[in-house]
Amino acid sequence: MAEYLVEELSEEIQAKMDELAQKGNHLENEGRLEKAVAAWQTGLALIPEPQQFYGQTVWFLAAIGDVYFQQGKYRLALECFDKARGNMTGEGYGNPFVMLRLGECCLEIGDEKNALEYLLRAYMFEGEEIFAPDDEGEDDGAKYFEFLRAHIDLGLEND
Questions:
Q1: Would the pTM count as exceeding 0.70?
Q2: What pLDDT was estimated at residue 59?
Q3: What interhelical angle do 112-126 and 96-108 show, nearest 10?
């Protein structure tokens, strides 16, 4: 396998990426999801190839994938999270949220084997808390946690 020497992103590019990340977050909070995705895709495009050697790639892919997941576009979300998982910095494979969304997407498209693997990884990183609803009470992961419990003895009561 070839080794790549990855240069640090310039302060100018990093500042523009930060601006686009914040813009995407703001647009997402306003419910303007397509525009949020566009902002994040623009930020992602600023990362030089090979993008998998930059940790910032994980963040942009996860943000885009999360919107797709929320919209029920599970295959598009899976593509984003799978690319994030393959990031060479290790920031994707070691990210509990990436593992959670990979598992959720896999389950939604009927790939129970991979769903189980990724949901278990998310559980191993964060425990049951990763399946809890967010601060707004949304994104309830009970369905995914129950799937995991039905297939793996987690050593919890009522398993």
A1: yes
A2: 95
A3: 150
